Write a sequence for this structure.
């Protein structure tokens, strides 16, 4: 976890449990679009309160969003992330008290994900190499 994440977590931990954030607040803080937040809501992964047309996000929504985004960074599908969120497991690192989606995974799931990401990296490395060769051929011919 980076220094910014730790600072945000410390601020949020000190915030009252009834603190609410607007969709714009969350979008800015997490660097996502409003559409992304609405998408996660449509998928049932976030459940903000409604005050008229205004979405109000609770600390639990922020925690879930952080887990969703971490899961995406780790290469998990939304289906897999939803299953983890709905598993009822504690998805928090006990030492930092921060959301840690990896804690809900079995060693087999971790190994599977590592293998999947390594295959994707190999595919990307191959594509990059091919495009570099083609670029060199085209620029040398020019």
């Amino acid at each position: 976890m980076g220094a910014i994440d730790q600072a945000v977590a410390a601020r949020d931990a000190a915030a009252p449990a009834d603190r609410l954030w607007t969709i714009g607040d969350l979008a800015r803080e997490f660097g996502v679009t409003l559409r992304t937040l609405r998408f996660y809501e449509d998928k049932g992964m976030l459940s903000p309160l409604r005050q008229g047309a205004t979405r109000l996000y609770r600390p639990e929504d922020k925690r879930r969003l952080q887990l969703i985004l971490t899961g995406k960074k780790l290469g998990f599908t939304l289906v897999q992330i939803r299953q983890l969120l709905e598993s009822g497991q504690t998805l928090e690192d006990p030492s930092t008290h921060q959301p840690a989606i990896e804690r809900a995974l079995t060693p087999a799931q971790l190994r599977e994900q590592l293998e999947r990401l390594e295959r994707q990296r190999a595919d990307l490395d191959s594509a990059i190499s091919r495009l570099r060769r083609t670029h060199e051929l085209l620029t040398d011919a020019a």
